[in-house]
Amino acid sequence: MIRLGVIGYGQRMQCLIGGSSGMGGSMKVAMPDLKVCAILDPDVAGVKTRLPEEDREAKFYTDFDEMMRVERLDALAIGTRCHQHTLYAIKASKLDLPLFLEKPVSINMEQAIELEYAFENSKSQVVVSFPLRFTSILQKARRCIEERAVGVPQHIMAHNYVSYGMVYFEQEYRNYQITQGLFVQKATHDLDYMMSLMGSPITRVAAMATRGHVFGGTKASGLSCSKCGETETCRESPYRRKLSQIPTYDDHLCPFSVDCGSPRTGMNEDSSSCVVEFATGAHGVYTQIFYARKDAGRRGATVSGYEGTLSFDWYKEQLRLMPHFEVGGGTFNFPAGTNHFGGDLTLALHFKDVIAGKAAPITSLANGLRSIYTCLAAKKSSEEGAFVDVRQVGAVPSRAR
Questions:
Q1: How far apart are CA 53 and CA 47, in angstroms?
Q2: How high is the pLDDT of residue 24?
Q3: Which of 157, 162, 160, 163 minimizes the C-alpha distance to 194?
Q4: How many other CB atoms are there within 10 angstroms of residue 195's CB atom?
Q5: Would residue 217 count as lying in a domain?
Q6: 75 and 182 fall within a common domain
Q7: Which of 98, 340, 350, 362 could crosslink 75 through cysteines, CB 3.0-4.6 Å?
Q8: Do 183 and 207 meet the contact criterion of CB atoms below 8 Å apart?
Q9: Are residues 311 and 379 in the same domain?
Q10: At what angle do helices 365-384 and 109-118 cross, to 10 degrees?
């Protein structure tokens, strides 16, 4: 049996581990002998309703140190709200247990630096939740690039037209103090896979963001659709969304509320983009849009070199390879995958191997830090209107020295 402790059993951990629906999450499928034995989460009643039957004997704690004194765990998973990822990861760094850490690993530079220092001498093997790295499409793209199908990669153009982007304005994700914007919250996935494909860290960023043009506004604090008299005319009401065949909740918080913040006080972006420079001298661009709907949703990239061009889209489940000088090329189709395009299951299988000591983390803490340092540079650039150098992992002398 694999004894797992969970810090923060919210929607993400429920989806990843398994929930009360009776359907096992990716971790339960990958590790049938996995048992959640200890949970630290303030919403005890809510968590109990979501736990699968085999985990309902898990003991709940309010204190991390007490939990670790009492329990004998094989691994930990941290799925708290984003602003607490660093806090609990630093505590876990002293335990040398295999650790599954949700992204973003930090939400500001102070947290990220403290996190890097905390793991300098830790033996804990950290798997950061970057499931896009583990999707079949991205693995195929990486193999093509490693086999020099495009030659030396010189440019990447990546995009994410988020068809469910309204969640960042009508759920708790809109709390800017916790998310610190969608470069930090969302782009952390994409900038990570971009660096993986290009085989190089990003060293410099120039970014722009549009805030408050689509979402946010002057509607009352705490307003929800069920309390609003505009449900028949508002395009974001459940009634109007159903008429437009847009997936929706029966009730949700108003995305035009003052609770979304403002460009002056801080709020999530309607859209944001950045130009990035890699250590190799190559460069690329990335754009994310949060007001796309239905079939407008797409996510993928185009990588080009002198020898060829490769492009893929997770929504289309397709990768195309186009040689520049050879006859032919090819289109590769992939089966539909659930939960991050199938990446969650492969990520869970990888975590299983890390727990067993059979593998070193592919998406390690260094990858998580590299991503958040890049995201923070993009955020700063969008605020200041200037190129920003990206802090590099290990570039600053050890605190111990």
A1: 12
A2: 58
A3: 157
A4: 21
A5: no
A6: no
A7: 98
A8: yes
A9: yes
A10: 160
Cα–Cα distance for residue pair 370/375, rounded to 1 Å: 9
Range of the domain at 312: 133-209+269-337+364-389
What are the CA-CA distances from residue 353 to residues 67, 100, 300, 350, 361 (Å)?
Answer: 25, 12, 28, 5, 9
Residues in the chain: 401
- Single out the residue in 131, 165, 200 at which a domain terminates: 131
Q: Which residue has the tokens 């985990």?
A: 55
For Cα atoms 142, 200, 131, give the angle at the middle one, nearest 5 degrees.
50
SS3 state of residue 246: coil
Using the 8-state DSSP alphabet, how is residue 253 labeled? B
8 DSSP assignment: -
Contacts of 21 (CB under 8 A, 6+ apart): none
My answer on whether 67 and 88 are in the same domain is yes
Average pLDDT over residues 188-214: 98
Q: What is the mean pLDDT of the chain?
A: 94
- Residue 158 resides in a domain: yes
Please tell me whether residues 26 and 92 are part of one structural domain: yes
Q: CA 41, CA 13: separation in Å to the nearest integer? A: 12
Q: Residue 178 maps to which CATH number?
A: 3.30.360.10
Provide the whole-model pTM. Answer: 0.94
Q: Distance (Å, rounded) from C-alpha 398 to C-alpha 25? A: 39
Asked if 118 and 137 sit in the same domain, the reply is no
Q: Is 137 exposed, middle or buried (0-12, 13-18, 19+ CB in 10 A)?
A: buried
- How far apart are the C-alpha atoms of 116 and 67, rounded to whole Å? 24
Nearest to 130 by CA among 187, 74, 181, 198: 187
Q: Please give the Cα distance from 106 to 117 (Å, whole number).
A: 13
Question: What are the helix (H) ranges across 201-342?
Answer: 238-243
What is the share, in percent, of the chain residues with pLDDT greater than 90? Answer: 90
Shared domain check, 23 and 49: yes
Enter the tokens of residue 220. 């009352």
Model pLDDT, residue 22:
46
* Residue at 122: amino acid letter: S
What DSSP assignment string belongs to 64-100? HHHHHHH---SEEEE-S-GGGHHHHHHHHTTTT--EE
Which of 79, 97, 131 is at the close of a domain? 131
The residue behind tokens 């969970």 is 6
Q: Quote the pLDDT of residue 401.
A: 39
DSSP state of 42: S
